[in-house]
Write a structure and sequence with these properties.
By secondary structure, the protein is an alpha/beta fold. Helix content is 49%, strand content 17%. Helix 5 crosses helix 8 and helix 8 crosses helix 9. It is elongated. The mean pLDDT is 91.
């Protein structure tokens, strides 16, 4: 396995990177990590495209963007041995969940190989279509926005909203407690991206999240000026 790092990885800490790098026994795998992973893959293709045919799996670390942004798309038939992946984080803490992004014509052998790779690292895999956002973000962001709006409306206190979801539905965390772990500003950023990409008003960040994001921006400006 060859790892090309283009910025800090969201999915793997330094310790986890060592475990990933230890799987070098398979030279037919190529992994692009970091915030610029997709751009790095495109540069690699321009310079080393002849090596593409010798590989059986290429993985590109994604955030919320589509894999097709880097691989291109073709009349709904796109797909190859190039797959995207994103590890789900709670705040800055990685969970065991990795979402593997496939296209309509993605190679089944490459998917099976990616599954084996991540499961060997002790991670759980979910397969996701190539759409803006991943499964968890698409499901949870409207739910969290709705909870924040109910808090603004005075439906119940934060404590009682959380207790209702925990005791009534068996959720391990209530929505407000979960947002405390994730960070309101980060929720606002991710929800805003999806609102713009999907045109769905349910993703528009609730007021409290927008306020938190503005406060973060002000803090960043103050730090830069000091």
């Amino acid at each position: 396995m060859t790892i090309i790092q283009a910025g800090q990885s969201r999915s793997f800490s330094e310790d986890a990177l060592e475990a990933l790098a230890a799987m070098k026994s398979d030279p037919s795998m190529l992994v692009f990590l970091g915030a610029q992973a997709g751009a790095s893959y495109q540069q690699w293709m321009q310079a080393e495209s002849s090596q593409h045919r010798d590989l059986t799996l290429i993985l590109i670390e994604l955030d919320l963007e589509c894999l097709g942004q880097y691989t291109g798309e073709s009349q709904g038939l796109e797909g190859s041995k190039v797959l995207g992946f994103a590890r789900y984080l709670i705040g800055q803490k990685p969970t065991a969940l990795v979402e593997l992004v496939r296209q309509p014509g993605s190679c089944e052998q490459a998917i099976a190989k990616a599954r084996n790779c991540f499961e060997t690292l002790g991670l759980k895999l979910a397969i996701c279509a190539d759409r803006p956002g991943r499964i968890v973000d698409r499901l949870i962001r409207p739910y969290l926005n709705a909870a924040l709006r109910r808090l603004d409306e005075g439906l119940a206190s934060a404590k009682d909203l959380d207790a209702t979801l925990r005791m009534g539905l068996g959720y391990p965390h209530g929505p407000i407690a979960l947002l405390d772990q994730m960070g309101l500003a980060d929720h606002a950023k991710r929800s805003s991206y999806l609102a713009q990409a999907l045109g769905d008003v349910d993703f528009i960040p609730a007021r409290r999240a927008q306020v938190a994001l503005e406060r973060e921006k002000q803090s960043d400006v103050s730090k830069a000026q000091s």
